[in-house]
Structures are given as structure tokens and as C-alpha cells.
Amino acid sequence: AILMRQYLGNTLSFPQNPNPKLFFDTDQLTIAKYTLDDYLPMLFSGSKYIDGCYVDSLGRWPGYYNFRRDHFKYSTVPLTYTTRASSGATETDEDAEGKIVKSQPSKSAARPMPCLWNLQSHAEYLWELSRRLHAQNKIVFANGVHANRVLLGFAVDALGMEGLPDYTKHDAFYSARVAAYNKPYCALNGRDSVNPRAWNSCLYLGILIGARSEEGQEMERKFLPTIIKINEAGWQPVTDARVNNEKIGIERWGDGCGSPTYFTLMNRSKTAQHGVVRIESDKLKLPKALQITELLSQQTIQSKHEGADVIFQIELAPEQAVAINLENK
């Protein structure tokens, strides 16, 4: 199967099945055998300072479907089905002179057929790559873990995306945190961004971002230490907290019980918003004498207890995010 595209010029690409078990019972070379058994060990032996492997282009190569029936028996994931016409790659043939030509579409091109989804074959590769590198105390970092590739995030140690996180892109934005859970998720090419909405979005969901311009580095010095701090506490999908204003989102970091506990809140609107935050302090085993601090400004927030809950008010500018620290007074 070949793919003709414009990538740094007129390019001919060959999508591959990276399943490490493909043809394991033969001496036939595959991309996974070469990468895992030869290429990566050679790279790692070159320096003791290499901490892991970066896997790029998960937004590109998992997008194809594999109709090779001789591959099916080696798969550890279920088959799926689609039409050859929607598979992304093109079937090929040779003319009388041996030149590659596109085959004529057949009547069966639009008929759904059993196949392997190459995203799942990439999951098989990432599982095995992670298993081998973890045994060497090394990590796997993957780029391109987006909303339609969440399961690939479960197979790696750190995740990335190209583009800027934005709370208005709902599916992509929230699926990134779900894919990562409490592992690092990085915005890889936000280096020139000084867009306040992007930086506030990153603070809200704990997405790591950097900058290289002078103005961007001011944003980095303001936001990044706090983003790192909440990531170290670990994202918790169940907040045990709520806000009485649906335009203000809230996320929890840290499991309470005496360990550092943080909340991030974001005004997901273009107008100023007020909200009352109610945290179930008993569930988090928070101390009765609480000091609540907003980490970016280091301002203290006044709170009160109401039954088992601790309550405080928050005022947020349009598209503003804050990080709240709850600690013993």
C-alpha cells in the first residue's frame, strides 16, 4: 500500500503495520522487529544520557486500515471493518515495464471488509516498546494523542500534541486530560504563543507549555511553575467540589488525605463571572483550619465551613484561570 502526498515536496509514503508480533514465527523482517531489536538498542547504547523514546506522527500513521489477511492471525486486538475506498492508502500494481501504477477500482471497493485498524496495531507497538523501556528505567513519549486516539495515551508515559490547547475546542481539550490521566501532557509547538486564552487553558487542565520569545517567556515564568506543581499532585477526575455557575469549570489535583490538594478553576466565557465554590472537605479529609491561596497572585481567599463543606467565592475575568491551594492554616 502506498500513499502519495505533499510532505516536504512530492512524497511517496508506505504505511506499515507496527505490530511486534507480526510474522514473529518467521525470519521475515518487519518495521517493529527492526526498530525494537536493532535500531533502538543501537541508539540507546550510544549514550547513557538517553532517557527514553519519542514516538512521532501518531496523528498520521494510525489513520489507515490493513486488509492483509496474512496479518490477521498475528493481531492481539480485535478486527474491525471498513471499505477499501475509505482505507486512506491506495492499492497498487505494476505495468508491463515494472512501474508502479494505481490499480483500477473494483466493484468490491465500496463493500465493507474485515481489516485491522492501524491505530490498534500502533497500540500493540507502544505496549511492547513501553514494556522493554520500563525494564531499562526509560520512558516512552508520544506525539499526536488526540480525541480520536485516547487509548494510545494509556500505553505511554508522557503525551504531546501539536497546536495550542483551547477550552473552546471541547472534545480535543478534555480528551487530552482523560488520555493522560495524571501523566504529563505537553503542548509541543506553543513556543511562540503569547495568547492568554491558551496559557489559561493550559493552567486549567495542567497542560505543560513553554515559550522561547521574550514575551512568551514572561508567560512561561508566570504559569509554568504552577502547572508543574499541580501535575506533581496528580489530576483527579472526581472533584468532590462544585461551582454554582456552569460557566466556571473546576478540576482537582491531589487526593487530599494530608497530601497537597489543589483546584483549578476557569471562566469558560468571554464575560466576567462570579461563583460560589463548595468543596466536600470531609471526603478529602481536609484540615478544619484551612488556608486557601491563589497560587499565581499568592492572594489569600476567605472561606467558611457549612456542615461538612468548605465554601468560598471566586471572581474571574473573561477566560481567566486560577489555581487554588488548600493547606493547613
Could you walk me through the main structural features you see in this protein, from its secondary elements to its overall organization?
With 329 residues, this protein is of the alpha+beta class. The protein has helices at residues 31-44, 69-72, 118-134, 150-153, 170-180, 196-205, 214-233, 281-284, and strands spanning 3-6, 10-13, 52-55, 65-66, 80-82, 92-94, 100-102, 113-117, 139-143, 158-161, 185-187, 208-209, 235-236, 241-243, 248-253, 261-267, 273-280, 290-294, 299-301, 303-306, 309-316, 321-328. It has a 6-stranded antiparallel sheet with strand order 13-15-16-22-18-19. A 5-stranded parallel sheet has the order 3-9-10-11-12. Helix 6 packs parallel to helix 7.
Layout of SSEs?
Elements: E1 3-6, E2 10-13, H1 31-44, E3 52-55, E4 65-66, H2 69-72, E5 80-82, E6 92-94, E7 100-102, E8 113-117, H3 118-134, E9 139-143, H4 150-153, E10 158-161, H5 170-180, E11 185-187, H6 196-205, E12 208-209, H7 214-233, E13 235-236, E14 241-243, E15 248-253, E16 261-267, E17 273-280, H8 281-284, E18 290-294, E19 299-301, E20 303-306, E21 309-316, E22 321-328
Parallel strand pairs: 3-9, 9-10, 10-11, 11-12
Antiparallel strand pairs: 1-2, 4-8, 5-8, 6-7, 13-15, 14-17, 15-16, 16-22, 17-21, 18-19, 18-22, 20-21
